[in-house]
Each structure stands twice: as structure tokens, then as C-alpha cells.
Design brief:
It contains 15 helices and 7 strands. The chain is α+β, with helices and mostly antiparallel strands. Strands 1, 2, 3, 4, 5, 6 and 7 form a 7-stranded mixed beta sheet that branches.
Length: 389
């Protein structure tokens, strides 16, 4: 292995340039790559549709959870053209349970745009990909590298952790992002492999290999971050980069990445109303824009900080035949990205003749599984009905 050289950053930690790192990573990846439903076998070409679908699903969601959803989507819509002709309702229904529903809306909008504006083929550059709905810098880089072999390194949370430990980046996140991006790109190998004429043959082939395998370099780092360089107790003894990891050498690798202190959102409170009519449940659809846009929910009060139970109860739906609401013991809690939520649950039964208030509807409880219910609503309904759906 080449020895570490060149301390490079000014007061932001120590960086080394080690030409062997990209080769070590690729070698490790060839032996230990994870088998994932969206990942082609070694030597096979990646399908841009599968790469894109998996990357969107994997945003804020783990591999285990995503696997079955990915298979379901692929069975129903085998290519972007098919997904581009699906209805948004169907896509939201299929997505239900994965959370962060704006991703599903963008997924649908993106498939429509690829079909309509790009003849059903994803653009093959980062810039082209970024012009599509729901594709930000990370996803564009991931698709460009993995599906099209573009020489770029997508940097997600896993890769941030590996790189910040490897180079002992002292600057806290999120300010450190540009530096980490720059350092991560060094793991792709020689930066100008196309200057092939000016290089010796063996150097040419090594750099060329790293260049054409940009997607593998990225996936190698992703795998390393999820299986070896884990947030707690990284398995450094098994790491292919342990020979020149600055964090490991210092013994404080677990303290990276440094993070700026973050203010947690204030707790919001509200009430949810689980109303049954025989074996039907009263539901409504949330507004298209905003949190959980377009998803199905039982009626609720507003969700506000410092809201008391009595105020929340005054926002109950108006239905004939409800003499009093029954408050279920306990509360349902849920944590959104920006705030935690606490809902008390009220229940009521109404007669078979009761009509749904405006903009609400009755749905059979037996078909609730087909509704685009977010997780928080699944918890509320389970709490209200006393059974899982
Ligand atoms: S040696 Fe340890 S801390 Fe450093 S990159 Fe490898 S697993 Fe992470």
C-alpha cells in the first residue's frame, strides 16, 4: 500500500492523498458488494430506471424497508414509460407506508416528464438529471455515476461519515459539505484519466479503470458506510482503508462527522377523530400541497404547539347523532422531520343513515389497506379501533 502523503487542508483537519485508495475500495467492493434488488450483478449494466427508483425510495429510508416497495413498483410498472402513464393516486397508494410523500409525488412527476420530454430515456448527465422533478444534486450524481458511469461522487450521510473519519474533517456539518464533497471525489481516482497520452501505460489503465467504474466507487463507499464504517463501533479491522484513516490513527473516529447543534422543532399537539358507521370509517384527503400532501387521513384538529385538548375537540367534524366523543386512553406520538406530534384520539359510532360531512367520505375498514394512509394515520386508526390495519 502507498504511504500517506501531503497534509492538505488549512486548520480543518488533515487530508492525505493516497493514490491507492480508489483501487483498494474497488478491490474490496468486488469481493464484498451487497446484493440488492436494484443492483445489477458484477459486469452487468445498471438500468437507469431501477437506479433512479431505488435512489428516490432510499432517501431517508433504509434498505430493508425499501426492498419490498421496490419489488412491488417494478412488478406493477416495469419501466419509466409505464410509471409515466400511471395515475398519481395509484402511485401514492403503492407508496403508502414509505413516508415523506412528496417523494412519491415527485416520482410520478419525474416519470411523466421523462416520458413526455425525453422520449422515455433518462438524461445521462448530472445537469440533465437535475432538471427533472425530485432529483437533487445527490440523486443526480448517484444516477449519473451508477447508471451512466459519469465520473462524479454522490455524497450521502454514509459517505459523509466515512470521508469525515478518513480525513478527520474537523469542520462541522453542514458547513463541511463542500470540503467533504471535494475529499470524496479523490476516492474516484486520478482526476484526468483522459490525459492518457501523457501517462505511462500501467498508470493509464489503473486510472481508466477507476474512471469507468465511478458508479462502483460510489457504491463501494455506500456499502462501506453501511456495513463497516457504521455510526457506532465501526469495524475498522475489516476496512480496506484502515491503513491510512486519520480518524482511526487518532482513535477518535467515532466522533466524526462533527455536527453543529441543531434545534429540535417544538412539540405540536392535536386531536384525531375516528368515526365509524357500521364497518366503515370516516376519512378525508389532505390538501395536495404541504405535509403528507394528497394522503388519506381521519379528520383531525389543527396541529399546534401548546394546544389544549378542549380547543382541539372544538374542531371535531360535525355529524348528526354524536352525543359525545369517547376519548381513548393514551396518546399517539409521531416524529416528523421538523417536529414531534402528539395526538389524542376520540372515537364515535354513528347510525347507518349518517352522511359524511363535506369533503369527507366513508370507506370500508376492510379496504383501508388500499388507501394512501401515512404511518401516523395507521397508528391513529389502530389506536382508535383497537386493531391494526
Ligand atoms: S478505518 Fe474505521 S473509521 Fe476509518 S474509514 Fe475505515 S471503518 Fe471508517
Amino acid at each position: 500500500m502507498n504511504s500517506p502523503a501531503i497534509a492538505k487542508t488549512k486548520g480543518r483537519g488533515v487530508a492525505f492523498e493516497v493514490p491507492a485508495r480508489p483501487a483498494l475500495l474497488l478491490d474490496w467492493y468486488d469481493r464484498h458488494r451487497r446484493r440488492l434488488p436494484w443492483r445489477p450483478l458484477a459486469g452487468e449494466r445498471a438500468d437507469p430506471y431501477r437506479v433512479w427508483l431505488s435512489e428516490i425510495m432510499l432517501q431517508q429510508t433504509g434498505v430493508k424497508t425499501v426492498g419490498p416497495y421496490f419489488e412491488k413498483f417494478l412488478a406493477r410498472w416495469p419501466d419509466v414509460d409505464a410509471l409515466g402513464t400511471a395515475s398519481l393516486d395509484d402511485v401514492l397508494r403503492m407508496w403508502a407506508g414509505l413516508g415523506y410523500y412528496s417523494r412519491a409525488r415527485n416520482l410520478h412527476a419525474c416519470a411523466v416528464a421523462v416520458r413526455r420530454d425525453h422520449g422515455g430515456a433518462f438524461p445521462d448527465t448530472e445537469q440533465g438529471l437535475r432538471s427533472l422533478p425530485g432529483i437533487g444534486p445527490y440523486t443526480a450524481a448517484a444516477i449519473a455515476a451508477i447508471a451512466f458511469g459519469r465520473r462524479t461522487m454522490p455524497v450521502d450521510g454514509n459517505i459523509e461519515r466515512v470521508v469525515s473519519r478518513l480525513f478527520a474533517v474537523e469542520e462541522p456539518l453542514p458547513q463541511a459539505k463542500p470540503l467533504i464533497q471535494e475529499l470524496a471525489a479523490t476516492l474516484l481516482g486520478e482526476s484526468r484519466a483522459e490525459d492518457a497520452n501523457s501517462r505511462a501505460d500501467d498508470a493509464k489503465s489503473r486510472a481508466g479503470d477507476a474512471k469507468s467504474r465511478a458508479g462502483d466507487s460510489a457504491q463501494a463507499l455506500m456499502d462501506l458506510g453501511s456495513s463497516i464504517c457504521t455510526p457506532k463501533k465501526p469495524a475498522c479491522a475489516l476496512c480496506p482503508l484502515n491503513g491510512d484513516c486519520v480518524g482511526r490513527a487518532r482513535g477518535d473516529q467515532e466522533t466524526f462527522p462533527r455536527k453543529a447543534l441543531k434545534k429540535a422543532g417544538a412539540l405540536r399537539r392535536g386531536a384525531a377523530f375516528v368515526v365509524t358507521r357500521g364497518d366503515e370509517l370516516l376519512v378525508r384527503t389532505r390538501p395536495e400541497k404541504g405535509l403528507l400532501g394528497g394522503m388519506t387521513e381521519v379528520p383531525t384538529s389543527h396541529w399546534l404547539a401548546a394546544q389544549g385538548d378542549k380547543t382541539a375537540l372544538t374542531q371535531a367534524p360535525m355529524l348528526k347523532g354524536i352525543a359525545r366523543w369517547h376519548r381513548k386512553a393514551g396518546v399517539v406520538t409521531h416524529v416528523f422531520t421538523h417536529f414531534p406530534l402528539e395526538l389524542v384520539v376520540y372515537t364515535a359510532n354513528v347510525s347507518a343513515r349518517a352522511r359524511a360531512p363535506e369533503a369527507m367520505r366513508w370507506v370500508p375498514i376492510s379496504t383501508l389497506r388500499d388507501e394512501a394512509l401515512p404511518n401516523v394515520m395507521r397508528k391513529v386508526i389502530a389506536h382508535g379501533l383497537g386493531e391494526n390495519i
